[in-house]
Amino acid sequence: MEEGARSCLLQSRSSLEQDIRASYLMDHMISDGVLTGDEEDRIRSKPTRREQAAALLELLLRKDNQAYISFYNALIRESYGDLASLLHNSLPLVSPEAEKSFSDGGTRHVQAVLSEGGVPQRPVVFVSRPALVNRVREKLYHLQKEPGWVTVFGMAGSGKSVLAAESVRDHALITECFPGGVHWLSIGQLDRADLLVRIQSLCFRLEQQSQEKDPSSSLHRSPGSLEEAKERLRFLMLHRYPRSLLILDDIWDSSVLKAFDIQCRVLLTTRDRSLADCVSGSKSEVAVESGLEEDQALEILALYVNGKPQRLPEQARSIVRECKGSPLVVSLVGALLREFPDRWAYYLHTLQQKKFKRIRKSSSYDYDALDQAMAASIQVLSEEHRELYIDLTVLEKDVKVPAKVLSVLWDLEPEEVEDVFQDFVNKSLLFRDCHHRPYLYYLHDLQLDFLAEMNRSGLESLHTKVVRQYQQRYSQGPPTSGDEECLYWFRFLTYHMAKANLTQELYSLMFSLDWVRTKAQIMGPAHLINDYVEYGAILDKEVRGHFQEFLSLNGHQLEQRPFPDVVQLALSQPDSSEVYRQALLQAQERATRGGLYLDWVNKSSLKSLSRLVVQPHQGSIYSACFSHDGTKIASCGSSKTLRVFKSTSGEKLLEIQAHDDDVLCCAFSPDDHLLATCSSDRKVKVWDGSRLSVSNLCCLWNINKPSSQNTMFGHLEPVNHCCFSPDDVYLSTSSSDGTLKVGGVTSIRDHSFYLDSPGQSMSWKEQVYNYGVVTDPSCCSQVFDVETAAMLLEIRTSRLSTVQYCHACPSSKLVAIALSHYAVELWDIETSKKMADCSGHLSWVHGVQFSPDGSLLLSCSDDQTVRVWETNKVHTSSAVCLKRDSDVLFNNGDITVVAADNRNRLQVRGLGWTHTRTHNDVWRWRTGECVVLEGHKEQVRCFSLLTTSPSSETHLLSWSFDGTIKVWDMSSGERLQDLVCHQGAVLACDVSPDGQLFATTSADKTAKVWSSASWECVCLLNGHQDCVRSCRFSWDGRRLATGDDNGEIRLWNVKDGTLLKICSRENKDAMDSLHGGWVTDLHFSPDNTVLLSTGGYIKWWNVEKGEALQTFYPTGANLKRIHVSPDFSTFVTIDNIGILYILKKVE
């Protein structure tokens, strides 16, 4: 960066740090290519806005003129005009030609120096790796003042030699640090005689060049021994070339390197990073990544076949991914394709089949074929370590393991394993992730493929050994520490069993409820579901279906903390399920030891509504979509993140912090390679779908032009929707600013359309059916003929709900509609009939989408879940749903439930329906007479009978939203008492068993205890932080339980009003409530030892300890009331989607 620009930044630093929001500016700078994703992550990791701003400026000061200009433009775009004016006068002038010349280092002087020193020229096919080159140059600058060693290390074929040559192709580096020249010597695997010949050749070359510069100097005879050659080279480097650089390429052996320990400046390339330990002097090192970035690798292939990366066949990208961007493999394949340009599919298949001997022919590499290059690295190991290295064949690709995993396999101490691994790492045969403690280790895919091919016949026995060693080490039960070793066994034990063909043991493990519970608690349910999908072919189909269905429908519950009781969840499975059978046996056994479990006895009438329930985010989910191959789902929402997970299991594949505000929509590109997101922060971003990094190949409008932006700016309000066209030609966005932008992929121009109302949603439709569907925010969706614009059908939904979204099925005439009353409806366009109600969400449904084949339907909601439904199996609209107001009769074990249904009919199978009015009617049911009790000023909340002592007269208590309690004579209708109880609405009232007291609770966050003799307040109970919605006296009258809208339950001493317990105050669930919602009902057991509460779910509490004994999770939520049998063994309630629950204690 120019000195003037740097000074200006330093002078303005304080003002910039105080005001700028770095996250807003970095999007622009990444789009300009002056900031990398890793640099952005490091800046975002700072805890405060000001620290992020300071980190960005510190980074900017180390960059060039282009970065300064990009930063200035970002300030302008983000309305920091006053700050931009501080930098304006120091804007540098950038010459593209000068920048290119500088980056190439292509001056005549540099070319001459490198040519004299034998430095190889750039390969014909070359792609720059600027970050690595700059890292090596930075280390070389440290050799300016004193001799030392710079080691460039990496696995076979990672491009170390090309990188070393490129790093010295710099005019400033040579003139400032190495004016004596740069001298290149290729080594390889040599014996002492060959090494002597190489040093003799180098000495002769140096003397010859010295004589050309100074004719008075004479040539010496060639040194006769290695020791003499070392001394001759020392003399030349210290006296004739004192400030020169010696580059030693491809060093294998420390004994070879010692021959060059002559106090000079050395850059060496090697596969073994530990080689420099044997020499003296200062040392530094640079690790070379094993693979190129995908765009770099595609550029190399394009150069070999004289094409453009955008026009390469699809197999090109697959080849790069298969070899993880290995420069060696990409170059070998590219050279072969130059001769046979039609063999893309053949060479991809060859890589996939691990036929490395067929990947051969490259004049620029020492080995004839890929397998020879791989084998050469392994041969340098000792025989003992070679056998251990072959054991690594059992590892899975892309999996990092701690040393403790191999300590189980090898029966060694973890420290001994780490010593072995250190040898592998030093020789670039294994990679170490130093960001974790303890360290994690992994193999490159090529190394693993090579091992698998070499050890093909012994794989099954090796996997068997892994399983047996695990069983021996953990004979008392699986590890539960939660560390990396524990996670490995839970994730991959089934993999090793399957590979070892231990079918019976795999069956016993995966069909064990104990294994399900432990693995779900440690890793979550998605990995379990994925196991049942992956190994389905070798497992019993029926039993596998039982476990997979249980996990798919309860996965969101198994993500909760505290972790739920898996046995209780499993008791809700059908009676025919193996999961239920195991759960019932365990529940019965635990019940004998005092455990409390509930069996849902009427569940047989209920069919599964969803195929999969996933909770991918903490917060509302605004959008979710299938990939075009149907295997993945992307979701986004108020968490500001984008997540991609498997559609079969919910297993997370990728996740990224996508925007600085709510992410409102996400969409896959037609080839599933890219993902677009849009946000309330007014930006649209396009992401690489395989890695979820902002794609270097994508842009504002032109996805295939590397120089284009990948973040779109231009909308003035939140961007509500984005989608790709089916042919990948256009990207369109709609915004609350009233504009719809459509841009061409092949040009950077965009077109704006102004809408009459804020743009909410849009879609591109291929011409399968000639109709389109639009939504009206009120309560209807309309179907139009695309050609004539005539309305074919108007779908009217409930007047109490608004239409949030709709989507047409690509394979049928079905339309899915998302509604605000927590439901999804399916309609048939041809018959104009509603075909199904998809009930199960607990809050507003924001989006729906069919899978590409129409077999599945996904929906996303404010309840933090994404649900996947099977289109042909969801409930039809003829299903009857009960309303929550109800009554129950318990009679000698028989249960009669009376309730109103959604068609306003009274059903005699559950719960009584009470109509709420602003006055009360008292009927003498035998005579039909009615007494009207009037006096409340607002709606009457409820009423209760009060029997007073000593007269034993029965009065009626009624309480209302007007904050009063009124006492009525039931015979005459006379109002006996009018008590102003609270400053807010009275929400609940309960009478003590002896009739001496009654309690009231209110929206004013208080509860009160009243005397029925004096009608005065006995106790004022303060402490709740929200509306107190329910209360109940214990049967002995000594305790009062109160519950509030934050899900908190408090137990009070009735005698003096002191607080006894707060039930599980520390355990909040993911819905940010102690109870999943309001506490709506409370009941004590007859012996006063157990308290029952309802809210978002049902809980049983130990009264003395205030601890939860059991939790029952209904399918719906918002339970209003629960009915309890006299012996406290049967419980009946209805949830908000109309499902009836009859629960009985397991004996």
From TrEMBL:
One of its GO terms (cellular component) is cytosol. The keyword Repeat applies. One of its GO terms (molecular function) is ADP binding. Keywords: Apoptosis, Repeat, WD repeat. Gene3D superfamilies: 1.25.40.370, Death Domain, Fas, Helical domain of apoptotic protease-activating factors, P-loop containing nucleotide triphosphate hydrolases, Winged helix-like DNA-binding domain superfamily/Winged helix DNA-binding domain, YVTN repeat-like/Quinoprotein amine dehydrogenase. Residues 1-90 form the CARD domain. WD repeats lie at residues 656-688, 712-742, 838-879, 933-978, 979-1011, 1021-1062. GO terms for biological process: apoptotic process; regulation of apoptotic process. SMART domains: CARD, WD40. This is Apoptotic peptidase activating factor 1. It comes from Hucho hucho. The lineage of its organism: Eukaryota, Metazoa, Chordata, Craniata, Vertebrata.
